[in-house]
Amino acid sequence: MTASRNIAIYGKGGIGKSTTSSNLSAALSELGLTVMQIGCDPKADSTNNLRGGESIPSVLDALRSGKKIEIGDIVFKGFNGVLCVEAGGPEPGVGCAGRGIITAIELLKQKKVFEEFSPDIVLYDVLGDVVCGGFSVPIREGVAEQVYTVASSDFMALYAANNLFKGIKKYANNGGALFSGIIANSMSKPVQREIIDDFAVHTSTTVAGYVERSLAVTRSELRGQTVIERDPDSPQADVYRRLAKGIVENQKRYVPAPLDAEELKKWASSWSDRIIGQDADEEAPKSTSYPPAGSEGLS
């Protein structure tokens, strides 16, 4: 690759966006690419699993210190050489969380970080519940060329994705980033894929890949690692590798067609009616044995 690919990955809080981003970064690094992951969440925990569960100082932490900032104060190496940066956020209750993204990007440019490391791919891991203020910078300012969203088949995840589509559409004519695909996460039943596929049809988008729900992710994150590092021979690791390869090859960049509020509500209601009875096995009472009263636990 001769030029850096800047990719923003959005998704509502708790949807697995940072898990997906860090496993993608690890898988992309296995392809021989120089990868930089920039966490754009005020919690500053996007890159933890690339560094053995260790948090790194954020850009805003460095600025608040009042000391002269060197590149080594804000860029840290993680698994397989992945470059890790956390934008950070303001002190609790003070200022705009999105401001951290704006400040971080400005400082990285001032310090010529991208020239220093020449990353092949820069992944921006961005909170996607609200596409406004600083959180919209990767889209609005054209910082990223391609945007993906991590979404499950749950309504609130798709609601957040639809809002993201509205933001992309709004800025598309002013040099904003364009969309490249939905990463369908936590897929455990065929109907969940069907819901995602149908949502993509109704919003004129595409599905970049499906990530199944797996305990390999839980095991790895409990050790502060990606699946690529902790369980490299697992089927789940191969899922992330295929997704990473697909992202490298994917040149699609387009404007989605978001649904308005009423259309989204009607679409969701139609699927609620269609899946009635499909989860009957989950709702059926299960026989459960409990330890006797006063028991100290299982032997």
What features would you describe in this structure?
The chain is α/β, with parallel strands linked by helices and 299 residues long. The chain has a single domain (5-275), classed as P-loop containing nucleotide triphosphate hydrolases (Rossmann fold, 3-Layer(aba) Sandwich). It has twelve helices and eight strands. It has helices at 17-30, 59-64, 99-110, 113-117, 137-140, 155-171, 190-202, 215-222, 227-230, 235-249, 261-274, 280-283, and strands at residues 5-11, 35-40, 76-77, 83-86, 121-127, 146-151, 178-187, 207-212. Strands 3-4-2-5-1-6-7-8 form an eight-stranded mixed sheet, with helices on both faces. Strand 3 (76-77) and strand 4 (83-86) form a beta hairpin.
Strand ordering within the main sheet: 3-4-2-5-1-6-7-8
Please trace the helix and strand order, writing H or E for each element: EHEHEEHHEHEHEHEHHHHH
Average pLDDT works out at 88
CATH third-tier fold name = Rossmann fold
Q: What is the highest CATH level, the class? A: Alpha Beta
Alpha-beta content class: alpha/beta
CA-CA gap between termini = 58 Å
Shape: globular
Our estimate of the beta-strand percent is 15-25%
Organism: Methanosphaerula palustris (strain ATCC BAA-1556 / DSM 19958 / E1-9c)
Enzyme class: oxidoreductase
Cofactor: [4Fe-4S] cluster
Family: Belongs to the NifH/BchL/ChlL family.
Write the layout of secondary structure elements.
Layout: E1 5-11, H1 17-30, E2 35-40, H2 59-64, E3 76-77, E4 83-86, H3 99-110, H4 113-117, E5 121-127, H5 137-140, E6 146-151, H6 155-171, E7 178-187, H7 190-202, E8 207-212, H8 215-222, H9 227-230, H10 235-249, H11 261-274, H12 280-283
Parallel strand pairs: 1-5, 1-6, 2-4, 2-5, 6-7, 7-8
Antiparallel strand pairs: 3-4
Helix pairs in contact: 1-10
Keywords: 4Fe-4S, ATP-binding, Iron, Iron-sulfur, Metal-binding, Nucleotide-binding, Oxidoreductase
Region (Disordered): 275-299
Family: Belongs to the NifH/BchL/ChlL family.
